[in-house]
Amino acid sequence: MLDIPSNNQPRSIPTFMSPSLSTSEPSSVDLLQHLALERIAPQWAGFLGVLSDEFQAQLTSEELRALLVRLGVRFAQVFELPVCNSLEEIEAAVNKYWSQFQWGYTVFSDVGRQLQIAHYACPLPAAMQIDADLAGGFLEGAYVTWLRAAGSPTELLLRQVPTARIPMYMVFELSAR
Q1: Residue 170, φ and ψ in degrees, nearest 5
Q2: Which among 171, 169, 147 has a CA at the least distance from the CA of 93?
Q3: For residue 36, how many other CB atoms are within 10 A of its CB?
Q4: CA–CA distance, 143 with 158 (Å, rounded to integer)
Q5: Which among 113, 125, 149, 160 could disulfide-bond with 167, CB atoms 3.0 to 4.6 Å apart, if both were Cys?
Q6: 50 falls within a domain
């Protein structure tokens, strides 16, 4: 039996998503987090909040991230990229989807022996009230699926790399295992 709270109180914003109260002026990150929370469509905010709560209650962080990776794979399979002949074309095709869904944008960079993918303004951490490390699983699944479909060798590994604790910014690298 599920333990469902009887009160209809709105969810509180987790500390990683709420503005810092220790300074008189909010930081740029605080303002961006607030704007991201406001962009969540009201008809989805409550549902996504309780869905996220339930995922976090039932799954370990590793299991939740793995689930998000699988969802990202499925997303990329449903929203296939057209045939692309260059990295620039792949980036443009990916950004067309992200723009359509208001999911920020991405920049692909060839940095020598690896491909770097920076994703800016991802709404998933705010929508599910999770940190960027967990939310990045969804993007990782989508990017690896799109890159494989575009011909990326299976010997290459896509992984999320640590960044500054900015909830809507994630970086991934495709490189040799």
Answers
A1: -135, 145
A2: 147
A3: 20
A4: 8
A5: 125
A6: yes
CATH assignment of the domain containing 134: 3.30.70.2590
Cβ-based neighbour number of residue 41 at 10 Å? 9
Token pair 């951490």: residue: 125
Residue 109 belongs to a domain = yes
| Token pair recorded at residue 14 | 């987790």
Residues 26 and 19 sit within 8 Å (Cβ to Cβ): yes
33 against 155, higher pLDDT: 155
163: tokens are 């960044």
Q: Rounded to an integer, what distance in angstroms lies between the CA atom of residue 80 and that of residue 16? A: 33
**121: which 2 tokens?**
């303004």
Token digits for 9? 């109180």
Domain containing residue 69: 28-176
Residue 83 lies in a domain: yes
Q: pLDDT per residue over 62-120, tens digit each?
A: 999 999 999 999 999 999 999 999 999 999 999 999 999 999 999 999 998 999 999 99
Entry pTM: 0.81
Residue 12 lies in a domain: no
Nearest Cα to Cα of residue 175 among 109, 122, 119, 79: 109
Structural domain count of the chain: 1
Check: CB of residue 52 under 8 Å from CB of residue 40. Answer: no
Q: DSSP state, 167? A: T
